[in-house]
Amino acid sequence: MSHALHDVASGTLFGVALNYQGLLQQHHAAFVEAPYKQLPVKPVLFVKTPNTRNRHEGQVVFPAGVQHLQPGPALGVVIGKTASRVSVANALQHVAGYIIVNEVSLPEDSYYRPAVKAKCRDGFCPVGPELVPASQVPNPDALGLRLYVNGELRQHNNTANCVRSVAQLIAEISEFMTLHAGDILITGTPEGRVDVQPGDRVDIEIDGLGKLTNHIVAE
């Protein structure tokens, strides 16, 4: 991560689970049974702790003793000014710009309670390659995402398929929690996560934001 990028995107990394329609539908049956009995009515949040921070061309360690490691292509929204109880109409005025995030995770048992042990290993949140100013991204809710493993397209989706738009997320989260300049909102990963192995190269492309590359290495 460049010095300039670190300065403008050095805050808390907030993740949103289940924010793609396809992913929500996959888990619909489980949510309408006990103990939940309904789909989530608010964004399901988790935090990627500071130790997870990683960068473009950085190495992601495949932990010893685990069976599966899964990259997660996601649009990152970098907050530009304090957002507290903002409306949907005004939400995007609080955005400095957008960035690619690789929300790396071990497979999870529960989407309602994302596991710290699965989400927060060292280096499990590469961000990059650079911040693209909001003025250069006319519509963050219509961006194609593509995940390549060793040059092969393995996953693709579009932020148009998100359950909540960028503005809705900022408005709903800022109802109860102030977002500060430098915070990054990870707007969710789509369904169809793929497994990677030590030695693999992972590339994530998002329309207009470039390409974030990471290398999987054995512990």
Molecular structure report:
With 219 residues, the chain is α+β, with helices and mostly antiparallel strands. The chain has one domain (3-218): Alpha-Beta Complex (Fumarylacetoacetate hydrolase, domain 2). It is 15% helix and 33% strand. The protein is built from six helices and twelve strands. The chain has a seven-stranded mixed β-sheet with strand order 2-1-10-5-6-7-3, with no helix packed on it. A five-stranded mixed β-sheet has the order 4-12-11-8-9, with no helix packed on it. The longest helix is centred in the C-terminal third of the chain and has 9 residues, at 166-174. The protein starts with a helix and ends with a strand. The model has no long low-confidence stretch (mean pLDDT 90).
